[in-house]
Specification:
The structure is a single chain. The protein is mostly helical. The chain has two domains: 226 residues, Up-down Bundle (Rhopdopsin 7-helix transmembrane proteins); 121 residues, Orthogonal Bundle (Arc Repressor Mutant, subunit A), CATH 1.10.10.60. 69% of the residues lie in helices and 0% in strands. The longest helix has 36 residues. The protein is elongated, with a radius of gyration of 28 Å. The protein starts with a helix and ends with a helix. 26% of the residues are buried.
């Protein structure tokens, strides 16, 4: 069997789609309800891909014949839509979502009946004539275009029109790439609908390959980053914080330093004056007044002192020498790379990287 480079390339990428889906489903660090549906979608797309791949090379092995019994083109848009629904934390259609599986279930059931009669002759239903079967597959072809694109367009509103923290840039890029590929697939299916001639899907799966390898790159980076965060967090939870002396100047300062030392509240990147004042049962204005009369001047200076001290402790530890500085900065409580770098240099006179090279 002679295979072209593109055919080999797409086969490898389809296998990688399956493996990436399995990794997303099985990894403890990537485990979430949203990622479950992303992983399922990748596995289903791999099944669709392998069916199309064998069709394009003119082969029809037993496994592919089994997969062909089910109309996967009505399942992956549903699971992918559920992923977008969860990752954007949208509550629309939440209660009625289970009905979205009906097209896959009902149409697959009809397809199994048609296949058992038309190809294998295992059953004999009188109204399933050649003309009826032809009309059935025409309807399937048309509905697969409408269904997939409709769900993508609905998810567009969730991802691009609502402002929530859940809308990560990579999710938007993923949606855009997938919409382009699905639109190309719709064009091919539309041509099949009008001409009854199935075009090769090789270039469609080449485009899909690009998306898969982009996702693998993002996934590996995100996985590494998540793993670093997990290890750093575990280290911070099991070690004592540095301690500033209050010198007995104020009871509220004593309580604040105790919270910082024992509970490590500074690790929360969202910590602010209002939250700290609430913990101390005083007003934000009075908290500022109390701190202004101490040698520490303001809350930000105290919190950043603790954060930088934690960062220094991590950077001195050889176990974390290969970890990214971004991971270190975010896990000790800074909300951005630039804030971490600027504050660290202001307090130590060195950038985090310079300090790391000096101590290791």
């Amino acid at each position: 069997m002679n295979l072209s480079f593109l055919q080999i390339f797409t086969l490898i990428s389809i296998i990688h789609s399956f493996l990436l889906g399995v990794v997303v489903l099985s990894s403890k660090l990537l485990r979430s309800k949203a990622n479950f549906y992303l992983g399922i979608s990748l596995v289903i797309l791999a099944i669709v891909g392998i069916n199309n791949w064998f069709w394009d090379i003119g082969k029809n092995p037993l496994l592919v014949r089994f997969f062909d019994l089910f109309l996967w083109q009505f399942l992956y848009p549903t699971t992918l839509f559920k992923y977008f629904l969860l990752v954007t934390k949208s509550k629309s259609l939440k209660n009625s979502f289970k009905w979205f599986y009906m097209p896959f279930i009902i149409l697959s059931l009809f397809n199994i009946i048609v296949t058992f009669q038309n190809l294998y002759g295992w059953i004999n239903i009188s109204f399933l004539t050649e003309e009826t079967i032809h009309i059935f597959y025409k309807i399937i072809s048309f509905l697969s275009i409408i269904y997939s694109l409709s769900l993508l367009l609905v998810s567009f509103g969730m991802i691009f029109l609502k402002k929530t923290k859940a809308h990560f840039l990579w999710v938007k890029i993923f949606w855009g790439l997938f919409f382009f590929i699905d639109s190309y697939g719709a064009v091919l299916e539309l041509g099949r609908f009008y001409t009854n001639e199935r075009k090769s899907h090789t270039y469609l799966w080449v485009a899909f390959s690009v998306v898969i390898y982009w996702m693998i790159y993002i996934g590996l980076y995100k996985f590494k980053f998540s793993n670093e965060k997990f290890e750093i967090r575990k280290f911070l939870e099991n070690t004592k914080a540095s301690n500033l002396e209050s010198k007995g100047t104020n009871d509220y300062l004593d309580k604040l330093l105790n919270l910082l030392t024992t509970q490590k509240i500074y690790l929360n990147a969202q910590l602010n004056r209002e939250k700290v004042a609430e913990m101390l049962n005083i007003s934000p204005g009075y908290l500022s007044q109390v701190l202004s009369k101490t040698e520490y001047k303001n809350l930000t200076a105290i919190i950043n002192y603790y954060r930088v001290e934690e960062a220094k402790r991590l950077l001195r530890n050889s176990e974390f020498k290969n970890y990214s500085l971004v991971s270190v900065g975010l896990e000790v409580g800074f909300n951005s790379k630039s804030t971490f770098y600027n504050t660290f240099k202001k307090q130590t006179g060195l950038t985090p990287n310079e300090f790391k090279k000096q101590v290791l």
